[in-house]
Design brief:
164 residues; mainly beta; OB fold (Dihydrolipoamide Acetyltransferase, E2P); five-stranded mixed barrel; two-stranded parallel sheet
């Protein structure tokens, strides 16, 4: 009887694990106007705005130039995990606008520096146009509840290299 109970418990646990949220496909955040100088809030389509306030999981690579320490990091940016070959990081302004997200750790949480490995980030996405020096840097922020180092997937790359 105990063996049957343990087997049932194991089946239930594996079924629950399979219900875990799949990472959001970055392309669902794409916009038509990718001009960092002329982009306005009205260029964000309703389908993209619908993600505002949603809990998501997304995979990406820590942007090396966005961190200034190796431990206790509370804010950083990520490059998209992409099926497209990467561009040179110095050409980041040529990336489509949806390929960079600013990550702000939830209250009291921090993470450590990770290079050359994807991260899996869980949190609340906000559609929030962030400008720097008159240009759009990012369209999105995520308030991260969890940041986990993940493994590279075959056929996926960091959107910009080196610098991931």
């Amino acid at each position: 009887m105990l063996k049957l109970f343990l087997m049932m418990l194991s089946i239930l646990a594996s079924a629950h694990a399979s219900l875990a949220t799949e990472p959001l496909d970055w392309s669902k955040l794409a916009v038509e106007n990718n001009n960092r100088q002329t982009f306005t809030d009205s260029d964000i389509p309703a389908a993209v705005r619908s993600f505002d306030g949603e809990s998501i999981v997304i995979r990406g690579y820590m942007m090396v130039s966005s961190v200034y320490q190796t431990k206790g990091i509370g804010k950083f940016a990520i490059w998209a995990e992409s099926k497209e070959k990467p561009i040179n990081q110095n050409l980041w302004q040529q990336l489509p606008l949806h390929k960079i997200i600013i990550v702000e750790m939830d209250d009291g949480l921090v993470t450590d520096f990770v290079i050359n490995a994807p991260l899996e980030i869980s949190g609340t996405l906000s559609v929030d146009v962030v400008r720097s020096e008159g240009r759009v840097f990012s369209l999105y922020k995520i308030r991260a509840k969890k940041v986990l180092k993940s493994t590279k997937r075959d056929g996926y790359y960091c959107a910009a290299e080196p610098g991931c």
